[in-house]
Amino acid sequence: MLSEIASRYLSQNRPLSAFSPYAPASDRTAWEGLDEEWRQKSLALGEKYSGFSWPYLCATDFMDFSRTGNRVRFEDRFFLKRHALNALVLAECVEYRGRFLDDILNGLFSICDENAWNLPPHNSYAREAAPLLLPDLSAPVLDLFACETGAVLATALYLLSDALDRISPLIGKRVRFELERRIFTPYLNEHFWWMGDGRSPMNNWTIWCTQNVLLSAFLASAQDLDSARRRRIFQKGCESADYFLAEYGTDGCCDEGAQYYRHAGLCLFQVLFLCDSITQGAFESLFAEEKIRNIASYIFKVHIGDIYYINFADCSPVAGRAGVREFLFAQRTRQEDMAAFSAIDFKAGGDDTLLLPEENNLFYRLQNGFCAAAIKAFSPFAPLRHPDVCYPSTGLFAVRGKRLFLAVKAGDNGDSHNHNDTGSFTVYKDTKPLFIDVGVESYTQKTFSAQRYEIWTMQSAYHNLPIIDGVMQKDGEVFRATGVSWDLDAKSIQMELKNAYPPLPGLLSYRRFAQLDEGDAITIRDRAVFSDEKKHQVVLSLMTYEKPVAEQGTDLPEGCVRLQIGEAPKGGDQQGAFGSLTVKGACVSAIEEIPVTDARLQKAWKHSLYRILLSFTGPDVTLLIQ
Questions:
Q1: What is the bridge-based pairing of β-strands 425-429 and 432-435?
Q2: pLDDT digits (tens, 9 = 90+) for 3-60
Q3: CATH number, domain at 211?
Q4: How far apart are CA 415 and CA 475, in angstroms?
Q5: Of 48, 413, 493, 606, which is least surrounded by CB within 10 A?
Q6: Are residues 354 and 393 in the same domain?
Q7: What are 123-161's pLDDT values in tens digits?
Q8: In this predicted structure, what is the pLDDT of residue 342?
């Protein structure tokens, strides 16, 4: 898509314009006309970093990951510097009196002085290679955050070049020197895996890195980059964008989940936005392409309600509020419902969506400032309704009732950021979590190593799936659901899960059927079929957020058990976030409490999680969730 347009445009010897979608700070009319709440709160946030002491990242800090496997200690300090610089730059742009310039100058030089802009876990030159202990200054690594650091510095220089030049032209010269050495030279002369080659699978890295290299090269004067090299960067970036798009089905589903959409689909939007701007509209037609429109609307379609999204793989159910970038993508692809969703979510997010205080990318925060007034003023044309969806490219299925929400993930166990979760389901009631996908703990060295599936959150035994004769699902694309069929009108899906497991003696079939019925109840029916009469152990694992308690003294049919999930609301109010589970064909063998101690998981789950283990008493088990 993109590379063809780029080649055609360049073959006509047409110029590539500088990218300047938003006014630099010297344009006081533009800046003083921005949303006043954003202006005042941006100023206050910058003041919090006044006199900031810029941490020094020494060699042993970088080595900490290789030595201990911990990546958080380094990353906390690394990203804090970017957050501080972003806040100071925007505060100076709002006020423009020089009050923050010394701190900004110190921040620019502190980042320029870093031995590397890439993170220690990414310090390698081949995909999945073990990271080197220390960075090689003569051969910079272009990873996600090296590229993003380049975009941060380029944006800062674009916004404040006049003010910085009045202090000394050597400031801009230093920044441009580092951009040349760390970004442009390696980008044009080396091949990093995420650039794409037409054979290797790509993921969010491809478009995320490409976006930031393009921002670094084309913002305003492009940091004095000569025309010929900018054209090469433009062409190469468009080729990488096509490799990224090739990973998507026409349905636009992000197999990395809602959280990664912000680094995938939204980065694609920025690439298209930039390319269209610098070519005077040559890329406009792509916003009408079915695949692009579906990539844009994915985040709207997988939103459950409030803060929650359908999650699988490494994605968290709390994937972050939608905001300006989603709103702009919706507008360019002419999707009114998604624009409405973005505006509503932006307003619900308060300062987090207005200011993006923990966002590393300065350009996103700048974009917020210039678009805040428009998104605040947007009025939805009708009540917001999320559609029922199925995504053939990944096997994702989601349907909604009056109070209940059901999502099922068919597909395979070869997704990017994969968990062994084929066939797992999640259930929400009144937009609150009942049966859940846990997500992933804080990334460590083990997360992306050969020992990945030793981590409990990655295992099928901690998803809503069976353990068959003590065996869990296996990772890899060949371990998949087969015979998948769904009916959105009937709100049902069924599949064969036998092939998601390694070969098991005697197992002929394990089928799963799931349906959200008209009475706003969910039925899950599982059937295990074996070729022999040996005693086989099938244990169904169910993950819940609220505590399950077996009901006592109920008049259920023989062979059934009922559990209440969570405490009933006080005062007889039946509109609370609790549910019930009626089980036929299995007994409760255990209910385990799993304390949530990991910082990343604690962002989604505020208390312990629970695992129900149901032992089959026959070939069939039926779950009724209400």
A1: antiparallel
A2: 999 999 999 999 999 999 999 999 999 999 999 999 999 999 999 999 999 999 999 9
A3: 1.50.10
A4: 9
A5: 606
A6: no
A7: 999 998 999 999 999 999 999 999 999 999 999 999 999
A8: 97
Residue 360 and residue 316 in contact, taking contact as beta carbons nearer than 8 Å: no
Instruction: Please tell me the distance from the alpha carbon of residue 104 to that of residue 343, in angstroms, as a whole number.
Output: 32
The verdict on 445 and 583 lying in the same domain is yes
- SS3 (DSSP) at 473: coil
Phi/psi for 308 (5° steps) reads: -100, 145
- Whether 476 is in a domain gets the answer yes
Q: What is the pLDDT of residue 575?
A: 46
- Is 573 in the same domain as 491? yes
Report if residue 156 sits inside a domain: yes
Same structural domain, 438 and 354: no
The predicted-structure confidence for 237-281, as pLDDT tens digits, reads as follows 999 999 999 999 999 999 889 999 999 999 999 999 999 999 999
What are the backbone angles phi and psi of residue 515, rounded to the nearest 5°?
A: -150, 140
If you average pLDDT over every residue of the chain, what do you get? 95
> Is residue 484, in this structure, part of any structural domain at all?
yes
- Polymer length in residues for the chain: 626
Q: Distances in Å between the alpha carbon of 248 and those of 309, 469, 478, 483?
A: 20, 36, 19, 22
CA distance 239 to 287: 17
Per residue in 269-323, pLDDT (tens digit) is 999 999 999 999 999 999 999 999 999 999 999 999 999 999 999 999 999 999 9
> Are both 120 and 67 inside the same structural domain?
yes
The tens digit of pLDDT for each residue in 157-202 reads 999 999 999 999 999 999 999 999 999 999 999 999 999 999 999 9
Phi/psi for 294 (5° steps) reads -70, -35
569 and 489 part of one domain: yes
Give CA separation, 278 vs 39, 48, 207, 281, 328, in Å. 28, 36, 18, 8, 18
pTM summary value: 0.95
How far is residue 486's CA from residue 389's CA, in Å, rounded to a whole number? 10
Is the domain of 420 the same as that of 523?
Answer: yes
Structural domain that includes position 519? 389-625
Query: For the chain, what percentages of helix, strand and coil (3-state, to nearest 5) are there?
Result: 40, 20, 40
Last-in-domain residue among 374, 398, 423: 374
**What's the total number of domains in the chain?**
2
DSSP assignment of 424-448 equals -EEEEETTEEEE--------BGGGG
Q: Say if residue 220's pLDDT is above 80.
A: no
SS (H, E, C) 318-349: CCCCCCHHHHHHHHHCCCHHHHHHHHHHHHHC
284 and 421 within one domain: no
Q: Quickly state the pLDDT bin for 223 (edges 50, 70, 90).
A: low
Question: What CATH number does the domain containing 425 carry?
Answer: 2.70.98.70
The conformation of residue 56, written as its DSSP 8-state character, comes to P
User: Which residues are within 8 A (CB) of 609 and not within 5 positions of it... i.e. 6 or more apart?
Assistant: 436, 438, 543, 544, 545, 593, 594, 596
568: pLDDT strictly greater than 80 = no
